[in-house]
Fold these 3 entries.
Entry 1:
Amino acid sequence: MKNVNNMADSFKPSLLDQLREKSQTLRAQGEAARKPIEEALKDIDNTLWRVFRWLDEASAHLAVIRPRVGHVFHLQNILAIERPKFERGFVSFRRRTVAAQEVLEHVELFYRLEGDKPITMRLNPVASLGVEDRLRASTLPYQYNTEQDERRVVRYGLFQVQPIISASVRFEPDYQLQRVQVTLRNVDRFEAVSLDFPPDKVNEAALEDLVKFMMGEPNGFLRRAPLALIRGRIDESMAAAK
């Protein structure tokens, strides 16, 4: 009987063998769990690189063609810029490290639209204060001077506004939630509008709709994803509430 027990003990795994087996099992489970996450990071990063290359080429062509944009940019009831021209644009990106991988933090298209001629406004001093705040928020370049009477009392504020609109489209991924937020600033209005996309919907068809929307052509870009935010209107509502 003693010999049988000794034989059984000889086949029993040592403590080190048991620990080795458990650690290998857990390591394999961890690698299996990480693989989908790593693949998701890579897929989103690849999507953003495709966005960068596509928009980089598209903006270069638009800078040569310089098309008229079919939007009218209203700054409340202060001024309007109708059908400005696309002047130039460029695309930038930034990288960061996520889960030990270097990925794109964002891709952003910056472009400039320009109207036909400067806009001159002659207003009373009280109205000038509110107008200046809105011009500053819109990023429209302007100069402000005052007109005084013979007693050196300010009678009017004179605004010389350059019809130059700085617009942008930013693609910013949330790698954890696996979403891509697309924020449009001054694209069809003096506001920031954000849409929340699943990564697989940020495709060439969506980019085509985006550029058509930028150019003022009828399309469904704003209906491609849920609306996350309209910044300009919210800011003005909060200011009015104060």
Entry 2:
Amino acid sequence: MILGERIRLRAIEKEDLPLFVGWLNDPEVRHGLSLYLPLSHAEEELWFEGLLKRAPEERALMIEIDDQGAWLPVGNIGLFGIDWRVRSAEVGIVIGDKSHWNQGYGTETMRLALKHGFETLNLNRIFLRVYEENPRAIHAYEKAGYVYEGCMRQAHYKYGTYSDVHFMSVLREEWPPEIDKT
């Protein structure tokens, strides 16, 4: 387990897959993700089999929140595309349980992933991509310490619209940021 103040990150189990299918088939959850088609349980099982073949450092983790003493799954996060020579990785996150949106769990999870990436994996740079039409995520990433790097103009197409893809990152020397932890 990787423990935070109100959350923990744990390995994903096969029994978790129905949760993911439910979350990822919700158009509102999928809105900020690269997924654009409904997802079957069989496809999620194939994703899980591929996950198990990845290096342990690149396996997505379940995000659980402390809900009155019980751990409640709300999403997942993972570092991937790790380049060990330059000590860089990309991070991806989804809070799939919409009843826990706008409560700071995304920001806290991103901070915990940075701590893990810098302190455990000895990374130097952790970056992400975010669609311009996802201001809630951009705000959470900024609160976690991510800095805007640049933009790929009209690099994403979904639901009949082109949109920009923003890059944000945190360097080890910038972490931990002196930011408001609220």
Entry 3:
Amino acid sequence: MAERGERSADGPRGELALRTLAMPADANPSGDIFGGWMMAHMDLAAGMTASSRAGARVVTAAVSNMAFLQPVKVGDVVCCYAEVTRIGRSSMDLRVEAFVLRHDCGQRIKVTEALFVLVAVDAQGRPRQVAAEPAS
């Protein structure tokens, strides 16, 4: 397994849930992408994956173990992979990893990872049971 900040030989776990391009408007004056921008995209990836699995609307309940391993640069293609690691009655845990495809090195580099907890909710925003089978 790769050490923090090293290129991952194993590649991402889970399914590709989101892919986008890091743009200048998302960066500081040094060209590094803001951590909040990365977290927002990882939350989107977790939410889309959890909603599909739950067959319902989901909300983010918690984020933990957020680790920024490498900077994301303007021009990087950011790929977020999500893996459901636990399903409870109304909640589920997901591991989300972000990798970049950097044009100057030609390799996929793991840049960020975190654990997300999402809860399935009904129309009134109250927790509801996760569907027994994944939605198709």
